[in-house]
Amino acid sequence: MNKIIVESYNPKWKKEFEKACKFYQKLLKNINVKIEHVGSTSVEGMWAKPILDIDIIVINNSDSKQVIERLISVGYNHVGNLGVEGREALKYTKDNKYINWMDHNLYVCIDGCENLRNHLLLRKHLRNNEKAIKSYSKIKRELAEKYSNDIDSYIDEKTNIITEFLKNEGMDIDELNRIETINKKSK
Asked: Which CATH class is domain 12-113?
């Protein structure tokens, strides 16, 4: 397990996303997709692990399959939905000859799926709430220090603040419970 490192906001993250976005747009040019920078690196002023979170949004399962096939053709490995409906995860190796931007998590999401809604609402809440940025950044720094080699505990303990933000953005209790189930560490 790699050590968990949380850094202050870096404008490079936006530039790295833009570079990745251009690559995906060219690769997926004949498929109707939208590419979103989500997660903490997408929020100016937010402390984050220096790893981009990228959602490629598609209309339906057929488009999802096409996108995944093209991503596989440039060295990604499709690792499935990891227990999250409507979202497919892809990984790449560090020696990938096609990819020349920073570490990232890549997901193909069906438009309107709950996980995508989660990502977009959390980003919206943080971008529109400086107090939330400060409190979430503080918690992330503390948890990275406390659980420097335990990503499951790190994610588990930041879930409460995430679901609080999402509740403020209108997610219902069933949606919030599913997010907690996905994020909470198995005991």
From this structure: alpha beta
